[in-house]
Write a structure and sequence with these properties.
Blueprint: H1 3-22, H2 28-38, H3 43-50, H4 54-67
Length: 68
C-alpha cells in the first residue's frame, strides 16, 4: 500500500471514529479544522479520492455506522 493510500485510510478511519462518537456528520469547515490539527486529508481531497462529494462520503460512513 502506498503512502497516499495509507494517508487516505487514516483520514477515513478518523472520520469514521468522529461519526461514531458524535453520531453526526461534520461540516466541511469542521472537518478541515480537524484535518489541519491531525495532519490528515481535507474534505475536498477526501471527496476527490472517494469519487464524489465529501458529504456523500460522510453519508456512506454514517449509514454503515448506523447499521452496526
Amino acid at each position: 500500500m502506498s503512502n497516499y493510500e495509507q494517508h487516505y485510510q487514516k483520514s477515513v478511519e478518523i472520520l469514521t471514529q468522529y461519526i461514531k462518537e458524535t453520531k453526526t456528520m461534520p461540516t466541511e469547515k469542521a472537518w478541515n479544522k480537524i484535518a489541519t490539527e491531525n495532519n490528515i486529508l481535507t474534505s475536498r481531497t477526501l471527496g476527490y479520492i472517494y469519487g464524489g462529494r465529501f458529504a456523500d462520503l460522510c453519508r456512506s460512513i454514517f449509514e454503515k455506522v448506523k447499521e452496526n
